[in-house]
Amino acid sequence: MCQSGSKDNDVKIDNNSEEKNNIIKRNTKEMSFLSPYLLLQKCEEYNNIKKKRNDSDLLRRRYNSRMKSGISRLYELQPDPYDATQRKCMRVCVFTEVKNVNELMEMVRTGEIDAALIKAELVVEPFVLLAAANRAVHQAAHNRMSTRSLAAELIYSLSPTRNISESLINFGISEGSENLIVCVFDDAKGSKMVKLSKKIKGKPVKFEKWMQLVHYPSIKKLYNLKSSDLKSEDLCDIIANQIVSKDLIC
């Protein structure tokens, strides 16, 4: 019995020694994190990571230099306030002095560009554009689009007529277009607009320039407006009513 007891004691002693060794190892490991050398090493690693991140941000800013901050604007669309599935965002940018219109038209035709390229002189102000955009999103949500894409539906929605071809020709990009309103859906971060701007050989301008591009005689003709309508403070409402009312025409 004494022998067996001594064996038990030996085992206990061994267990205690193992526990002590484990404690020492843990303490040593914990102390290593407090080592000045390791702290210095961690700081150097952090500084290297920070430097790489700053270099990456610098390259990104240089790459996106054409799209300056504040040039484009982001709008939130939700035609039905009770239906969250209709919620979308649309980024808008105005370009002037566009030189490669034919090239852009071909890219739109082949689907390389998924954006609405609209004649800037035919849109009075952002309110009219947003009215058309909300209509396009609403039609898409209910599977009632008259065109094949949301971008084309936006252009079609700007027109007071129900003739699709005529609407796209009148308001969309065409030969001789120099000033464009570019609209991209689902581009909250702006990456799509930046990528698209690389394909447009034109000058992105601030929204204040938009109002200077409007050609009222053309707007009067397209919307069958009176001269008094052009001077009215409710001009945008008059045009928006025509945009919406075309869905009520049988």
UniProtKB/TrEMBL annotation:
Q: Tell me the SUPFAM superfamilies matching this sequence.
A: PF0523-like (SSF143870)
Name one cellular component (GO) term: cytosol
> What keywords were assigned to this record?
Nucleus, tRNA processing
Query: Which residues, if any, are the signal sequence?
Result: none
Localization: Nucleus
Gene3D superfamilies per UniProt: CGI121/TPRKB (3.30.2380.10)
What is one GO biological process annotated to this record?
A: tRNA threonylcarbamoyladenosine modification
Quote the NCBIfam families the UniProt record gives.
PRK14886.1-1 (NF011465)
Write the protein's name.
EKC/KEOPS complex subunit TPRKB
- Species source reads Strongyloides ratti
| Highest classification ranks of the organism | Eukaryota, Metazoa, Ecdysozoa, Nematoda, Chromadorea
